[in-house]
Amino acid sequence: MSITYRTAVDLLTSPQPKPHLDAKGYQVVVVSYADTHRQDLVFKLAGVNTLVSVVSGPAQLALIDAAAQAGVRRFAPAEFEGQAALRPQPDALDRGKHEALNHLRHYSQTRGMQYTSFVCGILYERFSPGGMYARNIGLRSGIGAEGDYLVHISQKKAQIPYGTNGQPGIICMTSAEDVGKFVALALGLPQWPPELRMRGDRMNVSQLVNIVETVRGAPFQKVQYAPQHMASALQQARTSLDIQAQLRAITMIATANGRFDFATPNLNSLVDVTPKTFHTWLQEVWHGH
Fold it and tell me: Which of 74, 133, 213, 287 is the most exposed place for a label (fewest CB within 10 A)?
């Protein structure tokens, strides 16, 4: 599904009907991203000013091509993580993002279509009851269940990755709700830079685990991972052909290497949003559990 804007959030495109969104007053247009339906997609995007994508891979590339052909003025790809410049190439976590950005750079130069990557770091929802999957987020990521990233709160277990500097990895984080607020207000900005960075909190993984322990009122079983330990875990996962274990190890290595950290959240100073801190958000979502 992708969100397109004419003057407000009035049109959604999706490969399947979305009756729950219809009920909320949105106009949902069913589209196909297949090459054989390209002109139909171009037709349905006619008159759209801004498009925010939440699809990835070949579907997003088709959407970018159709948007450029339809004269869409601004396009935001499905990024919503760390900065593109910090990703290794090749990138096991890419899911077509590198190619999408190349497409957008091309159309920026040849058609004047503005684009921006919304950078939000790690979503708080990774640490919610049931993980991101329970919130219908990251369903294709392969590592969206509770405990797939750093902390399994229900089991009181935590993993703390350390970088080559001997310090715990640092991450920026934002709640999905606040990301939505930031993005909605960013639509009103007169110009989009190639990257708009937002965050609700920034801390190292050890500090994150301390907050989780405080909120849950209990100590966690903590395992510290040096770079060589994470490399060994990744090699073992590759040897056993365990894709999910590979993704977990790669994401932990990326965390230790600072992939999800950024010092300057430029969007925070451009729009009027007061994001929730991680501590406040965690208290709210785990209350009663």
Answer: 287
